[in-house]
Structures are given as structure tokens and as C-alpha cells.
Amino acid sequence: MAETISIGGVNIAKTAALAPMAGVADRAYRLMCKKYGAAYTVSEMVSAKGICYSDKKTAELCTVTDAERPMAVQLFGSEPDFMAEAVKIVRGFSPDIIDINMGCPVPKVVNTGAGSSLMKDVRLAADITEAAVKAAENIPVTVKIRSGWNGDSVNAVEMARALEASGAAAIAVHGRTRDRFYSGNADISIIKDVKAAVKIPVIGNGDVIDGASCLKMYDETGCNLVMIGRGSYGNPFIFEEIECALSGKPYTPPTLEEKMRVMLEHIRLILELSPKCEELAMHEARKHAAWYMNGYYGSAKFRGRCYLLNSYAEVESLAAEFIELVSKNS
Ligand SMILES: Cc1cc2nc3c(=O)[nH]c(=O)nc-3n(C[C@H](O)[C@H](O)[C@H](O)COP(=O)(O)O)c2cc1C
Question: Shortest CA distance to 71 belongs to which of 1, 134, 12?
């Protein structure tokens, strides 16, 4: 049995969590990652204002199913009052944790003063957190931050201290400044600095792509939990790999046949859970099919073909063709 950590009373296995990823880590994705051992999942980011104005799609994003637990619903916003109101509404969806996004770099979010823009205004970030904590009652509130706004303002330590004082139950740190978006290597030394500065659990995030990089994140930062985003693209198996790495068990990666079987299972789940017709849901599923094919002989051409898929029957026959091609050339 893996060691567990507690975030405001919510027990989470100290293995690896799935990071929130808008447009990627939807319910089907979270369920696949849970199946392979993700210790904790987070919803795609949801607009606090959107919830307050009872946007139907936003409410759908807040739904938590038992198989995804422990799960957080993540909110973004720039006004304490809207955040408090949104938290009260989200409580009705019974998430285990409510997370606040203070790391999103995209202009659409930053230009409203939310996401990583809050790294520039520690006082406002603290006020938003305090309002959320008060409104959340017994549900723990966590915050996900970056190392800073840019290279000249690396303030994750100051930010984390202020958020802890405002009642945050844990802080997730992505070791990149906002101006770097997702480029270059994550700086994990900032995660170590945050860990040394606060008493609440710290979640380390950035560039964990396998068992070795996960062990490095734990060893070098002392973080309480590791969180994985892009390393799980087409690779829910990463969570199993990490459990093996942490417990010293040998890990056997899936065969291509197994990968294609899991890819088809994932696509079926997307189609089943989507309110859209098969063709439109398939358009959303295309990128996942392509990711599962990464890293094999001839996969570039097949990945291109994934972006033309319109039905489940097509992806099924493409997977069979892919297996045949790879086995002929290996
Ligand atoms: C497509 C995509 C969508 C993302 N959406 C969110 C989001 O909704 N909320 C959030 O806090 N972070 C979001 N992130 C950031 C990730 O949670 C994570 O911090 C980042 O990808 C670094 O971790 P990684 O190197 O393991 O991918 C997103 C990242 C990607 C690539």
C-alpha cells in the first residue's frame, strides 16, 4: 500500500495526480487515468463568473462521479465575490476539494485578471482564496500557481505563504513563469523553496514524464505529491509506471496491441459520454488517438490520418492497420 497524504482531511495516495487540462483531461480522460492509478484528479478549469450566470456547459464541467474521486473542481476568476458565489454553487456538486487556478497563461484568461495574472497581485490572490475558503465551509480549498509572472518576478514563495495564511489547504506549483507558457524546462528548485516555506502540502508539477522524473521530483523538492499533465497524453499507463517506480517493482510497458485496445476503450468512453453526435465527438477524440500512436515506426503518417477520423469504425480499422505496419517493421 502506498503512503497517503492528507489535504485538508482528504486522503490521497502519495503516488501521482492527474493535472487539470482544459480541452484534454475531461471525464473520459480522468476515468482512464484513474483506472491506471491516478491518485487524484482535477476538473478542467471552470469560470467562476460562468457558474454564477448559470451557464449549462459550465455546470456540466463541475459534475463529479465517484470513479473520479478524490477529485477537485477547479475554478478561475479575479473577483473575491464571484469566487465565493461560485464556490457555494460548486459545493452542490460535492467535490472532495475546490482548487483555484492561478497559473493559466492564456491571454483569454489572463486579460480578465484571472489565472497567472494573479501572480502579479498577491494581495488580490489572497483575498480570492480567503473568500473561497470561507464559502467552501468544510471542503478544502487549494491553489495552483506558477513560479511567477516572468523571470524578473519569481514570487511563488511569497505567494504560497500568503495563500497559506488565507486558509489554502495545499499549493500546487508548476515550475515555470507565465511568460514561458509551456516552453523550456520546468525549474523544480522553486518547488523545493515553496515546500521549505509553508506547512501545508505542496504538489510538484512540471515535466514529469516517467517513473524516473517522478522520483526526481519527489527527491529533489521534498514535495508531498507529484502532478502530471502532458506526460499522460496517450499514456494513462504512466500512473502504473510511477506506482512501480515508487514501490521498487519492475514495470512492464504495454505492448502496442494493448495500447491500441486501451486507445479504443478511451475513444468509446469519449463517444459514450459526449452529448454530441458520433462525428462531432470523434473530432474531439482524434487527438487522443494520435497520442496513443506516438513513438513508433511510421507513426507520424498515422497520426496525421487520426486527424481525419469521423467515426469509431474508422479508428478501429486504423488501429488494426497500425498494428500490422509496426509489426512488419519491428
Ligand atoms: C492543454 C492544456 C490544458 C491545461 N489546462 C489547465 C487548466 O485548466 N487548469 C490548470 O490549472 N492548468 C492547466 N494546464 C497546466 C497543467 O495543469 C500543468 O500545470 C502543465 O501542463 C505542466 O505540467 P506537465 O509538464 O506535467 O504537463 C493545462 C496544460 C495543458 C497542456
Answer: 12
- Residues with Cβ within 8 Å of 229's Cβ and at least 6 positions away in sequence, in order, are 18, 19, 21, 25, 205
Helix (H, G, I), strand (E, B) or coil at 94: coil
What pLDDT does 1 receive?
Answer: 62
pLDDT at 93 over 90: yes
List pocket residues of ligand 1, CB cut-off 6 Å.
19-24, 44-45, 74, 101, 103-104, 144, 174, 182, 205-208, 228-231
Question: In this structure, are 217 and 273 located in the same domain?
Answer: no
Residues 285 and 167 in one domain: no
Instruction: Name the average pLDDT for the chain.
Output: 97
CATH code, 266: 1.10.1200
Looking from the CA of residue 115, the nearest atom of ligand 1 is 11
Same domain, 262 and 217: no
Question: Average pLDDT in the 66-78 region?
Answer: 98
Selecting among 33, 62, 104, 306, the annotated active-site residue is 104
pLDDT band at residue 311 using 50, 70 and 90 as cut-offs = very high
Structural domain boundaries, residue 17 = 4-247
Locate 136 and state its grid cell. 467552501
Q: Rounded to whole angstroms, how far apart are CA atoms 151 and 251?
A: 38
Distance 161 CA to ligand 1 centre (A): 23
CATH of the domain at 236: 3.20.20.70
